[in-house]
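Before the break, one more example. Copy the sequence into your notebook; we will annotate it together after we see the structure.
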Amino acid sequence: MDFAETESFIMIFHNDLRGALEALKAKQLQPADFAVLMAVMSAINHKTGMVEVTLTELGRAIGMPQWRVSVSIKRLRLQQLVATGYDSASGKRFLMVNPYLCGRRDDTKRFGLRWARFKELMSSD
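Here is what the structure looks like once it is written out:
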């Protein structure tokens, strides 16, 4: 996947990002985890809120091995910043960023659907 193909606008909410920075300060996250989070957010589909990119592609984009990206995704899941799931139609794995961290809140119906989907993915992990 070419990350330039996913060009769109997303908002990052300062108060929610502050919680992630506190986790970094408390050593629950590492600086490399933030690199992975930024790579995930750069590949987000702003219409669906899903990120359909492999861990290998993420690793290539930021110069990390696939295993390191996988470890970072696990830490990000523990902090409830990223959820993982499988698309039943295509059978492919996807990631979803917490809609309270980044996304669009102008459409409350769509935001509510994304939040419900994110909670569902977090409970199934």
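DSSP finds five helices and five strands in the chain. The two ends are 26 Å apart (CA to CA). Try to locate both features in your own notes.
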